[in-house]
Amino acid sequence: MAQKLGKPEDTMKLDPEISEAFVRIVLSPDEVLHAIETPRDIDLVRRQNDERTKALLEGVKRAGVTTETFEVETPDGARLALRVHRPLVRQADGPLPCLYYLHPGGMIAGTPEGDDVQLVPLVRELGCVGTSLAYRLAPEHPAPVGAEDCYMGLKWVLTNASVLGVNSSLIAIAGVRGGGGMAASCTLAAVRDGIAPRFLLLRYPQLDDRHLTPSSRVSWPVWPHEVSVGAWKAILGDRYGTDEVTPYEAPGRAVDMKGMPPTYIDVGAMDTFRDDCIDFAGRLLAAGVPTELHVYPGCCHGFDLLVPDAAVSLTAGQLAIGALRKAWEQS
Predict the structure, then answer these.
(1) Residues 59-98: tens digit of each pLDDT
(2) Would you identify the CATH topology of the domain 13-329?
């Protein structure tokens, strides 16, 4: 008699290095986020994010990179900080490639300062400009405010490319987690309006509010189904899960991918966003968009941020940076 198999999530195990570290850093019961249902839960997300950011920033080596803050004014009069990192020593003459990066935090938390951990060493290594925008967060600013802020920031960078020393034909848009969702939304809007980014880099992005896929219904470690649902409800309010939501708010809803730039996507096999990422990549490929997809076995949401020194984290980071470098070198 054939053995009855359980659900895939019942047979999956975390990568040993990820699992070991996960056990070490497990929070006290009152600090573990099981769902987002109240303002207190959102406050907890923000506090934990701020604490992680503070700890990580202590290890950032800033030699060789200069950081400035510019101001982006939105049509409704808001003034958003744009953090800009540039190399002190240029590897080439003329304007530089630019990574327009959008910070993580589920679209309800996070700051541009937290991106220094990724952007400062990347700017030093690749000799590019790196930017991060303080887009407005839900629920205080529900969708589409955050996504529109991100697109406005991109247009500001394009308009001010000469001031920033940026080659406007070599702008890559990137994001991680919630910032990945913002990056995808921003790119869709740019393509709609005839702007052609060089590259789109998405690392386990938050794409779809509907939770239609198998992985999106599982309570995986770090960002389980219940937390994902709560975050999207905070972002979309009463429109959550309805046909009123547009692809510029939840890019996983996008059907027409024609004109999208070459795209790189990676995600863990034990991530709520796994199947949405796979589906998004499939639609890009069907539209003829050069697309690279990596699904890492034994990895949960944010695995490389959780355990940056794990072998799989180092590999994932090297591949992502390599894809970005290649996109700029092929200009």
Answers:
(1) 899 999 999 999 999 999 999 999 999 999 877 789 999 9
(2) Rossmann fold (3.40.50)
The Cα-based distances of 15 to 152, 168, 177 in angstroms read 39, 40, 20
Could you give the CA distance from residue 292 to residue 331 in angstroms, rounded to a whole number? Answer: 18
68: three-class secondary structure by DSSP: strand
pLDDT given at position 9? 64
Q: Are residues 67 and 83 in contact, defined by beta-carbon separation less than 8 angstroms? A: yes
Domain boundaries, the chain: 13-329
Single out the residue of 107, 106, 120, 101 nearest to residue 56, CA to CA: 120
Spatial distance between the Cα atoms of 174 and 177, rounded to a whole number of angstroms: 10
> Which residues, 6+ apart, have CB-to-CB distance to 321 below 8 Å?
122, 125, 126
Single-letter amino acid code for the residue at 256:
D
Task: Write the single-letter amino acid at 186.
Answer: C
- pLDDT single digits (tens) 311-322: 999 999 999 999
In three-state secondary structure terms, 19 is: helix
> Measured in Å, how far apart are the chain's first and last C-alpha atoms?
58
